[in-house]
Specification:
By secondary structure, this protein is α/β, with parallel strands linked by helices. It has 29 helices and 13 strands. Its EC number is 2.3.1.-.
Length: 689
């Protein structure tokens, strides 16, 4: 690989148009365009190629600090500026996004492990909406940053071998890269967990290393100009048509990713550095591609949260793109250019540090140096964001509304409802989770099936009267968790403690119908073994859920639920179950955010759902309970619905915090009714102790 190879300005243009299509598809189409995959390929081509060129120069220093510092100066200031701006936007305009998950993503983005944080949180890649993280897009920056570290170390090792052994540099670098590319492709192409596969560095590595492979083995090819033009044209068509042909969120980086990657490879091989992609406009687009990618997504998500519009109008989308381009240009001029390292890699023995220290006396050097403490201070401050947001979450779920003004479900019992503003704040309801979620006592959907947060932090995951000898296990998923604040209060009042053994998206079931994933099945198998060993005095779970049968009420009882109840009965463990609450849906099937709908329209009834759409006339679980004397189902339909409707607001309290979870406030307003339903069973258990 010649160090004097002509720079490929057309690939700068390809990078720019790839990111431009990412932005356009995010804003207007809601799909993956394949532009990120092309961007990763080009990152491997340019970055690892430059590292290898420097490593081959016998006079260049092989100290890995220099390329690492150069990379930090090129990428990190812009990232920090965008992250801080996003934090300010969230604080000022979208308080509902001040969530623990996003707080941890903020730190993960600063540390370039956002892709792994999203996997840990079980966050699937989703199209833009007001429910998606404004930092979701930074997964690719994390993958890229992790690759850069690999590339620097790899190039230094190759340089050491080449200089000492005098071996063919292309062979020394190319063979390991071909192996890494093949292994990564095998991982990506055979993966069954598409969510993990989408974010994983190991699955994405082939897209990056393939770029370096193309540089090593194809940069010296001589392609006839006419053939080259055809290759570039076909390749560009493939790149630009990807988003229309593939569901990239589920299919990439699997075999389907060969389509956009293959198109980019055709441009790399067939291009000559000239043409449309090398025009001034395209090269400018390539220069601002990085900040444009960083800016557009948080702006889009914040705007969607403010407007509560799932499909922003064209003029809004155009405005978002225009502002993103403007901010990208300003960031490039005022942040990227002044702070990036323009000097090449130092020579062996060159005292670059001394020269750098002398430049601190100049205005330009002082400006660059001032960025270091600013970034350090920002990173340190970021460490306190999760703690501050956790305090906010705890305050939110412990707040109490005046029952005289906010009677909640007691409106259905004839309690007068004064004229008052509906509460709580509908735009912060997504953060008003139950105590178990607030204390991270719910295992995430992506967690190992053996993982139970209670085992690591029992003091945080035990509620109610923690000194009581009467123990209830709250089991299942988030629809059990939504009652934990009520159970916490009842436990304190009536002398029982509640242990949270919960997993996201994992109801207590012995599934044979494919209702839950394999990890949930294994979790529930382990849960039964645990219940047999621990023998709690009773368990608390849910008894129904949507079955989504056409032309029927949503509510049903999966067979796996009944099998689980039979196991409980055989173990002699009583059960308190909650009949599930309605899941709100628009006529086209999309989720309806009940509180936001009611806040925007003022129509509590229309923003809820007719009772018969979800509930059956009778609780279907009652006829299926193996032991009705020690297994009860609390009828939530009597708590949150009148004879005809289940409104989105009751007694001045918003009923739903999203499309299918009840607010803590409405659940707490039903505390007495819940106790009356479970009192006889709990008292009989206490009397036996």
């Amino acid at each position: 690989m010649s160090s004097s190879a002509r720079y490929r300005y057309d690939l700068d243009g390809l990078r720019g148009i790839a990111i431009a299509f990412v932005v356009i598809f995010h804003v207007f189409v809601g799909k993956v365009s394949g532009g990120v995959d092309v961007f990763l390929l080009l990152s491997g081509y340019f970055f690892l190629g430059s590292q290898l060129r420097d490593a081959y120069r016998t006079e260049a220093s092989l100290n890995p600090w220099w390329p690492l510092w150069r990379t930090i100066r090129r990428l990190y200031p812009t990232l920090v500026v965008v992250l801080v701006a996003t934090l300010v936007l969230i604080s000022a305009f979208t308080p509902g996004l001040r969530q623990m998950t996003i707080a941890y993503q903020f730190i993960a983005s600063l540390g370039y492990f956002q892709n792994w944080e999203l996997i840990t949180q079980g966050q699937a890649y989703n199209a833009a909406s007001d429910a998606v993280s404004p930092l979701q897009h930074l997964w690719s920056m994390a993958v890229q940053g992790q690759f850069y570290i690999f590339a620097i170390v790899f190039a230094c090792l190759v340089g050491l071998v080449v200089r000492r052994r005098r071996m063919d540099a292309r062979l020394i670098a190319g063979l390991p890269l071909l192996v890494v590319t093949s292994i990564s492709m095998f991982i990506a192409f055979t993966a069954t967990d598409w969510q993990h596969n989408y974010y994983s560095t190991f699955s994405r590595m082939w897209e990056l290393t393939l770029g370096a492979v193309l540089l090593l083995f194809c940069s010296q090819w001589r392609i006839a100009p006419k053939v080259g033009k055809v290759m570039v044209g076909v390749g560009l068509f493939m790149v630009l048509s990807t988003g229309l042909l593939f569901d990239g969120a589920r299919q990439f980086p699997g075999p389907a990713a060969l389509y956009p990657i293959g198109g980019a490879a055709l441009i790399i091989i067939g291009g000559n550095g000239y043409g449309l992609l090398a025009s001034g406009f395209m090269r400018w687009l390539g220069r601002i591609a990085y900040p444009l990618y960083l800016w557009h997504w948080p702006l889009l998500i914040v705007v969607m949260n403010v407007s509560h519009d799932p499909t922003p109008p064209v003029w809004t989308g155009l405005a978002i793109i225009a502002v993103s381009v403007l901010l990208a240009q300003l960031t490039h001029i005022w942040i990227e250019q002044p702070l990036r390292q323009h000097a090449g890699r130092p020579l062996r023995g060159e005292l670059r540090v001394r020269k750098a220290l002398r430049t601190l006396k100049t205005p330009t050097g002082a400006l660059r140096a001032s960025a270091i403490p600013v970034m350090l201070a920002t990173c340190i401050a970021a460490a306190f964001v999760p703690r501050a947001w956790l305090a906010e979450v705890e305050q939110l779920y412990t707040v109490r509304l005046d029952p005289a003004v906010y009677p909640g479900v007691r409106e259905l019992e004839g309690k007068s409802v004064p004229d008052a503003e509906w509460a709580p704040d509908p735009y912060s309801l997504t953060r008003r989770v139950g105590p178990a979620w607030a204390h991270w006592c719910v295992a995430l959907q992506s967690a190992d099936p053996d993982y139970v947060p209670y085992d690591e932090r029992p003091e945080d995951c035990t509620f109610g009267d923690t000194r009581s000898k009467v123990t209830a296990y709250a089991i299942g998923g988030s629809h059990t968790d939504q009652w934990t604040q009520v159970l916490d209060a009842l436990g304190k009042e009536h002398g029982f403690k509640v242990v949270a053994i919960l997993r996201q998206g994992c109801p207590a079931t012995l599934d044979e119908e494919g209702l839950v994933d394999e990890e949930c099945e294994r979790f529930n198998e382990h849960l039964l073994d645990r219940l047999e060993q621990d023998r709690p005095d009773f368990v608390i779970t849910t008894t129904t859920r949507p079955t989504w049968q056409p032309d029927e009420p949503m509510e049903g009882v999966p067979d796996g639920y009944v099998r689980f109840w039979r196991e409980l009965d055989q173990l002699g463990i009583p059960m308190v179950g909650f009949r599930d609450n309605p899941w709100l849906r628009e006529p086209d099937g999309t989720p309806r955010m009940g509180a936001l709908c009611a806040a925007d329209t003022g129509d509590a009834e229309a923003c809820g759902t007719p009772r018969a759409v979800f509930y059956r006339e009778e609780d279907p679980s009652l006829a299926l309970l193996p032991n009705p004397e020690e297994q009860i189902s609390i009828d939530t339909s009597e708590l949150i619905c009148d004879e005809e409707n289940c409104p989105a607001v009751l007694g001045n309290i918003y009923v739903y915090r999203d499309d299918n979870h009840l607010t803590n406030a409405i659940a707490m307003s039903a505390k007495q009714q819940v106790w009356e339903s479970m009192r006889d069973l709990v008292e009989s258990i206490k009397n036996k102790k």
